[in-house]
Amino acid sequence: MSVSSKRRGRQSYLLPSKPRVKSFAAIAGKKEGEGPLRGLFDIVIADDTLGEKSWERAESRMLEDVIRLCLEKKELSPESVDAFLGGDLLNQIVSASFAARQLGVPFLGLYGACSTMAESLLIGSMLIDGGFAQNVVCATCSHFSTAERQYRFPLEMGSVRPPYAQWTVTGAGATALTAEQGYPIAIESLTLGAVVDYNQNDENNMGAAMAPAAADTLRSHLAEMNRGADYYDLIVTGDLGRVGQALFEELCAEHGIELGGRYLDCGSEIFAPEQNLYSGGSGCGCSALVLNGKLLKEMERGERRRMLFMATGALLSPTTTLQGESIPGIAHAVSLEVC
Amino acid sequence: MNYGKTSKHASYDERVKRLSPKSEKPMSLLKAFAVGGGICLLGQLIRDAGLVLELEEDAAALLSTFSLVFLSALLTGLGVYDKLGRFAGAGSIVPITGFANSMVSPAMEFKREGYITGVGAKMFVIAGPVLVYGISSSVLVGLIYFFLRIAFKG
Amino acid sequence: MMMYLKVFAVGGLICAAGQLLLIYTRLGSAKILVLFVTLGVFLSALGLYQPLVDFAGAGATVPLPGFGHLLAKGALEAVREDGLAGALTGGTAAAAGGIAAAIALGYAVALLFTPKTKE
After folding, report:
1. Per-residue confidence at B138, pLDDT binned at 50, 70, 90?
2. What gap in Å lies between CA B10 and CA B29, rounded to an integer?
3. Closest Cβ opposite residue A154 in set B5, B89, B109
4. What is the complex's ipTM, to 2 decimals?
5. Residue of A2, A221, A278, B27 with fewest CB within 10 Å of its CB?
6. Chain B 111-130, CB below 8 Å of chain C: which residues?
7. Domain at A185-338, CATH from 1.10.357.10, 3.90.220.20, 3.40.190.10, 3.40.47.40
8. Which DSSP string corresponds to A60-110?
């Protein structure tokens, strides 16, 4: 099959072989485990150091553990995995590469900020559809305490953040994809996101920076796949939070996309407003937890048949923030369906 | 290439402003006022206690500063000061205790990066700029004063 | 008793001013601290801060502008005593006690305690 027959328009691709979701797993932190999604995670960690000597080690361990758990569920050995695709938020994505060192699986490190879960599914399903791999595992993680010390202030500092800020999720999620048929959930099509920048430069308001990218990717996906939003039972954005979610809904309405009641945002979903965590969750672990803890289970039970998963990322760094640069946003879309 | 503001971005800015929740102003101001005032009051009480113990004026002031810095360092170590900060905002940032917290918290945080390259280096991440600008402007003020004195004597 | 009321009110008002800056600007705490110290230095040099200290005691000395006042007062006094050299040494010398206490205690606390995640 030639490339042109798989490609739809500028950014979208159809996957004729429909790579399947073979297994998935989620490990959540304490706050995440006490939120609206309690009871849905495989493991909820009580101690966010996992007994390790640093939070960075704990984060990497969490990623390694979630991948092992994901593989064990379907009795896959690390040797049978052709590639591990994933990343995290730490400098030089060390959580992912250190986890890959422990697993001994061929590794492609990805950085798409909080969009990395979708980015890894996107590339992983392409590897399978292209016939390059039989089994791949896509996994990402984030950790409140590592993100805090890298991007913001020391934990014990009495700092203040505005009410529209977001709370980095502690958690890791893994999805194993396979070329084997016979599993109910398949990846059907993809849209590669373009970087969109609406000149937002408040690093506390990442939802505002990412919402235009999510709206742009959704519009491209629907146009190029020649679908209406009602094609899907559920459209999911990654971690816009409650502010970004409201902005996204307005932007969609302007583009003439009717989301109706079939939309949710992982950042708004992961924490309840009563938990007082500002405007919701963020971090690579946010969409990874909601996807692998809740959404894939609902698809497996047949409660949802067509879902568009769009993880969103704010492509900033502490350096660019200090230099006064605006925050570019990105969103990648993965269309999942129950066969 | 256009990195500047366009009308599209300007209208988006208005939308962001409209949809972003605002801080609870009266309540947060009241909390900052009460906690900040309370810390100052504590400082005054310690100073007056020093005077009762027949300390010199300067020594009593120093005792007050030391006690507040000590208390702040202890509460930071015990993991209490950051909670106070979330409650009181500037009320616990602006007093000298907030300055101490801004030195103690990174010192603790970066222990894992080593006692010299971590604790030693990171202690001044936030306090450093305060010292740079505070001390530099005191030198500037001193210099201006020195030359004014010469000018007026002459 | 009246004095304690003044301490509380003035100290509280300076902190509330800081809170206003936190809410209405995007300066953030680090820049507000720098602003307050520098402001304290210059107000003190112009002779405007000492009256507030006389009026409210610790209410004016405990907030960061008071730290600036200490620096400026030290610099001016040292210039009167030692001339040009005083301009360099005066401010730092006056603030040395507080700074050294924060450094030593910061180090000691870092030895004894490990940070915990935010609740």
Report:
1. very high
2. 30
3. B109
4. 0.95
5. A2
6. 111, 115, 119, 123, 126-127, 129-130
7. 3.40.47.40
8. HHHHHHHHHHHHHHTT--GGG--EEEEE-SSGGGHHHHHHHHHHT--EEE-
Q: Which residues of A touch B84 (CB under 8 A)?
A: 158
Amino acid at A43: I
Q: How far apart are CA C59 and CA B33, in angstroms?
A: 11
Neighbours of B90 (CB within 10 A): 33
The B residues from 68 to 87 touching C (CB cutoff 8 Å) are 68-70, 73-74, 76-79, 82-83
Question: What is the tens place of the pLDDT at every residue in A137-160?
Answer: 999 999 999 999 999 999 999 988
* pLDDT (average), residues A209-229: 98
Note the pTM of the prediction, 2 decimals: 0.95
Give the class (CATH, top level) of A3-178. Answer: alpha beta
Average pLDDT over residues A277-290: 97
Most A-contacting residue of B14, B20, B29 (CB-CB within 10 A), to test interface: B20
